[in-house]
Amino acid sequence: MNDILASMSNFNFCYRIVPCLADPARRSSLGLKAALVALHLVYAGILFLFDSDLIEKTKEEPWYTAIYLLLFVVALIQYFVTSCSSPGYVLDAMRDVNEKNSLYRRSSMLSKQPASSKSGSFVITVEGSESERNTQGSNITSWTKLVLDMYPPGTSIRTFTCSYCNVEQPPRAKHCHDCDKCVLQFDHHCVWLGTCIGRGNHCQFWWYIFEETALCLWTGILYITYLKANILRVWWKDAVMILLLVTLSIALIFLLLLLIFHRQVFSFTQYFVSRMIHGFRRSSFHFYASHKSHRVVTHS
């Protein structure tokens, strides 16, 4: 019993030092990240530990190993950059659009003050049209108007409102139950990265997959070169290298398929973003046009 209490106190002490370890989800994410980094180090370390020819080649042609190690470091850096990036949350985009439209309305109201007299007449400026009053009365925000323009006419707001976040989702947005947030152009939640892949970080994710594929391919070539030169010399070394090479080959096939798939998705996303920007400009034009002031002229 005392041992259990002592171990629990040790865990609590660790949680106080590193608060993120207290969250099971973040603890699992950190564990997977540590495992991925360790896997990279194992593959590279065993290669340099077993392959004496590679060590000799490094002495003769240091640029070759330097480029390989550079790719190794860049791939790991890209991994952490992608894991720390935001996928683009719907709630953040909604706040940004609403704030920009609110600033526009304020600046428009300040630039059109209702007090100008001209040639014996006075002009009363009334801000806001009937359509604006209807919009405000029905609590339809500028974000809602923007999202509505992305769907076919007659679409109900309820059909694209998230039941968890209670926000209007643009096309291809989806609620992630792991992050508990709606993500723009949601692709998937990557457990190895510990974050979602969406509009905000899809490009970084593609570059990480590209660099990881190149690194796996180069490492596989180095493993095959070693086995060709040293096969049947030390059986246990050959067994370790073959086992690692088989695992690496499976990972390489998976990465190549993932790279091709996400290249197609990235091309489609570029087209979708251009259409979305066009819809935003059109929606903004109609939204701003509805704020034109009505002038009532009364002669003296």
Automatic annotation (TrEMBL):
Annotated InterPro entries: Palmitoyltrfase_DHHC, PFA4/ZDH16/20/ERF2-like
Stretches assigned to coiled coil: none
Keywords attached to this entry: Acyltransferase, Lipoprotein, Membrane, Palmitate, Transferase, Transmembrane, Transmembrane helix
Domain of life: Eukaryota
Class in the EC hierarchy, top level: transferase
Transmembrane segments: 30-50, 62-81, 205-227, 239-261
Subcellular location: Endomembrane system
One GO cellular component, as annotated: endoplasmic reticulum
UniProt record similarity statement: Belongs to the DHHC palmitoyltransferase family.
Protein name per its UniProtKB record: S-acyltransferase
Source organism: Salix purpurea (Purple osier willow)
